[in-house]
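ok trying this again, last paste got cut off
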Amino acid sequence: MGSKESPLTATLLTSIIAAVFGSLQIGYHTGNVNAPARIIEEFFNVTWRSRHNESMPDSSLTFLWSLSVSMKDFGALLGSLGVKGLADSFGRRNSILIVNGLSILGACLMFVSKISESFEVLILGRLVFGLFCGLAMSLNPLYIQEVSPTEFRGAFATLNQVSFAAGILLGMVVGLDTVLGTEHLWALMLSLSLVPALLQYVILSCCPESPRYLLINCGREAEAEAALRRLRGKTGEILKELKEMKDEASHTQAGVTIRELFLRRGYRQPIRIVLIVNLGSQLSGFNAIINYSTKMFSKSGFEEAKYLTLGVGAVNVLFTVVAFFLVERAGRRKLLMIGFLCLAMCNLLMTITDAILHIVPELRSLQVLVVFFLISAYEVGPGPISWFIGAELFDQSARPIAMAFTSMLNWGGKFVLALLFPPLLKLCGPYVYLLFMSVALFAFTFTLLRVPETKGRTFDDIAADFRESDAIPLHNKTGFNTFP
């Protein structure tokens, strides 16, 4: 393939890989707390006993552990609020490097908690790391999409989810009691995210800033062209891409505020899409399964449930890789529809198998298959696409706020589900999955009727459709299925 056809340069690929080191760290701290939960709970108890000469009450221990686990998601919810300020003030690349410091501080606090015999330090470490999660999971796809060529934009943005899923699996493996999830080594296990964090500093510092940010936000055309030349090499498409950026700049309103984002008619449909695709993804059962799969498998009678949970992690990685190869071929809209429809079917099957499992115990193997299928349905479409679709639907000035909104919805959905799933399971039993099925069916219907295909289209081309919606209906717009 000639250099003209392939814009995949070493600088571009290095920039993408360096950016996704952030999501690897986030995935790692999502997957590493399940297996050693009892050991860390015992650390809480021993610390309490050394201070008060009595064991911690069971209810307090359960609350403290839930707080420790959910503190990351709560921190992420808070962190999302800073995305626009950082991305617009310091640039996309520099913002990723700045927030990486929160990851390092969080990992250090978690490591020190054991030496200092303080569970408060561990909870604080999880909170600080959570702030990093909320910022990085928006800044990463923002940077990746702005440095990627149009034809690879979705695939490269999906790499963020591949890295996140790989981090979850790595965390699950390292957290096992046969690896580092032991009484003596759990603090070291929690600090291992320092390795990708430090690698990100070394590699990303040598990569270029987003050319779109330099040209559209800062008006530094010469620097934007230099950054683009580093990213694209000698493809001959640089002048065409610069022209597309200038076209977008001419249509872009400088400094869109949060209030303007929610009041402007041209942004209403993109906001609805981001809202329903993200909440549909988070509240369609995936997070309940990923958080509680070990308990679910144990309840079904599997002795080594933790190894089945590793299977969940492996399927999770495998199908994010499948999404990476499919997203530019099948397109976002089709993968979202297939994903949501399959999630609805899986939740129905989860209800049926869970309801009759006590009568037909042999169905537990089918339940495992349904769990694996549910994970794959999520990762092929709704999982990765929900994180980056906001960056494609909004123009340059609104994009950071859109990504902050995306992050808040994603982390807020995770936080609410982590908090509400156990009581809902007690209240509804196996029928709790019917709630997830309803959410998935609603998201499928909305995607079918209202979500446009963004595959292979420039940012300005997509934004133009929504600009037109300020004035005219879009019923008959070619390739764009939405309504005013």
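PB: full thing came through this time. Residues 471-484 have pLDDT under 50 and may be disordered.
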